[in-house]
Specification:
Number of domains: 3
CATH class of the largest domain: Mainly Alpha
Radius of gyration: 22 Å
EC number: 2.7.11.11
CATH topology of the largest domain: Transferase(Phosphotransferase), domain 1
Strand order of the largest sheet: 2-3-4-6-5
Number of strands: 11
Distance between the termini: 24 Å
Organism: Maudiozyma humilis
Shape: globular
Pfam families: Pkinase (PF00069)
GO biological process, one term: Ras protein signal transduction
Helix content: 25-40%
Structural class: alpha+beta
Keywords: ATP-binding, Kinase, Nucleotide-binding, Serine/threonine-protein kinase, Transferase
């Protein structure tokens, strides 16, 4: 059994100036889906290097004709995959088509891994940039030349993809701490090869074993190795030393929704609806792969540079084709069937989704108590009460999501996530545009993009690190896939 002991659900008392809608050009989904690429040769239009940087890359990069041809082929294959992903956005209500397109995104990541991941390739980058306007037009017209891609198989979900052997500490410069937790911390790092910023999640093996989280830690690697979605964080690779395991992730500059919510006290109905819609699509994608997330809360939702969500921290995510029994998660968000140790599946995520919407609208969770046991009691039996300012449609969807009867809980019925998306509270939402990130965000983080800006993260005291240490490793066999 493990629950997050650091969760503090007191009502937010800080105020933030009214969130202004920031107008920025609507960009094509292929731009967003490939932001923060590890390879310079796979940059998209929104991250083209400066002329000076391009000249420097061209000077440093010397390729044979064969290598250049391979780079062009990889770039073209990648563009095909992007087009395939965008084709699916025009018919996202078809669950099978959406899963197929997400699988195309997985194939795209495979193509990335098959390239020389930390080398510059100016020619391939130039090829993509020259094709962008034409490809965007084809995407908007519903045209796609992409070839069918292999599915995410059950074997892949059980074993995960190979993530070790690509990177090591020598490839990065560790800059500062972005966050800390029970098992370790997350650092801002910078690649020694392409100069970009990433997040490095470091977990201590001894602590993982002591808290009996070996299975959850290995599950996190497996799940992140196969998922690929616009609203889910990307993991680039893993490695380990004698004491720690390391996961290289995208660096999402905008900080946590939790921080924004704490400063804002609560979100207006349209703002909460916007974030809920993007999170709903992330959950729908995970559930299509039989992955349950099990730890949905504002602390695990980041905002990217434009204000779109990124679901992070897959420490409790698990491939569950049938049912599971583990009690895990954050007390205020745990579903009653988990508290009562009954078998459960995807239903728990829709309960947590309801609690999240409630907290975004009210500024606090519905069953909070300073005593965790009292919180559990309220989850099992306390009536659901709403503040007077809640909209009627909001009350209705929350009543149906935060429902102890699994046969009536929205999202757990015959039509699954479609029931959630078709609820009147989401009536004005155009789901394919949400997936394509064509909808203007209600808040754009005030950051300097691409500069490793950490202004949206709290400062943590730095500690002496022993990363890369070589000594006796009694737990290495437990984390062999890292």
């Amino acid at each position: 059994m493990y629950v997050d002991p650091q969760r503090n659900n007191e009502v937010r008392k800080l105020n933030l100036p009214a969130m202004q809608k920031t107008h920025h050009p609507v960009e094509s989904a292929e731009v967003h889906d490939n932001e923060d690429k590890m390879d310079v040769d796979e940059e998209q239009v929104d991250q083209q290097p400066s002329e000076e940087a391009t000249a420097e890359n061209n000077e440093e990069t010397s390729q044979s004709p064969d290598e250049q041809e391979n780079g062009d082929e990889n770039a073209n294959q990648q563009q095909d995959n992007i087009e395939n992903a965008n084709q699916g956005q025009d018919s996202s209500e078809n669950a099978n088509q959406q899963q197929g397109n997400n699988e195309s995104a997985n194939q795209q990541q495979d193509n990335t891994e098959n390239s020389n991941e930390l080398q510059t390739n100016g020619e391939a980058n130039g090829t993509e940039a020259n094709k962008t306007a034409e490809d965007q037009a084809q995407t908007q017209n519903g045209q796609s030349n992409a070839k069918p891609q292999p599915a995410v198989t059950t074997k892949m979900l059980i074993l995960g993809k190979k993530t070790s052997g690509k990177y090591g500490l020598k490839d990065f410069q560790i800059l500062r701490t972005l966050g800390t937790g029970s098992f370790g911390r997350v650092h801002l790092i910078r690649s020694n090869h392409n100069g970009r910023f990433y997040a490095l999640k470091v977990l201590k093996k001894q602590t993982i074993v002591k808290l009996k989280q070996v299975e959850h830690t290995n599950d996190e690697r497996r799940m992140l190795s196969v998922v690929s979605h616009p609203f889910i964080i990307r993991m680039w690779g893993t490695f380990q030393d004698s004491k720690q395991i390391f996961m290289v992730m995208d660096y999402i500059e905008g900080g946590e929704i939790f921080t924004l919510l704490r400063k804002s006290k609560r979100f207006p109905n349209p703002v909460a609806k916007f974030y809920a819609a993007e999170i709903c699509l992330a959950l729908e994608y995970l559930h299509s792969l039989n992955i349950i997330y099990r730890d949905l809360k504002p602390e695990n939702i980041l905002l990217d540079k434009n204000g779109h969500v990124k679901l992070t921290d897959f420490g409790f995510a698990k491939f569950v084709p049938d049912v599971t029994y583990t009690l895990c998660g954050t007390p205020d968000y745990i579903a009653p069937e988990v508290v009562s140790t009954k078998p459960y599946n995807k239903s728990v995520d829709w309960w947590s989704f309801g609690i999240l919407i409630y907290e975004m609208l009210a500024g606090h969770t519905p069953f909070y108590d300073s005593n965790t046991l009292k919180t559990y009691e309220k989850i099992l039996s306390a009536p659901l009460k709403f503040p007077a300012f809640f909209h009627e449609d909001a009350k209705d969807i929350l009543t149906k999501l935060i429902n102890r009867d699994l046969t009536k809980r929205l999202g757990n019925l015959q039509d699954g996530s479609e029931d959630v998306k078709n609820h009147p509270w989401f009536s004005e939402v155009i789901w394919d545009k949400v997936l394509a990130r064509y909808i203007e965000t209600p808040y754009e983080p005030p950051i300097h993009q691409g500069q490793g800006d950490t202004s949206q993260f709290e400062r943590y005291p730095e500690e002496e690190i022993d990363y890369g240490i070589e000594c006796e490793d009694p737990y290495g066999f437990l984390f062999k896939d890292f």
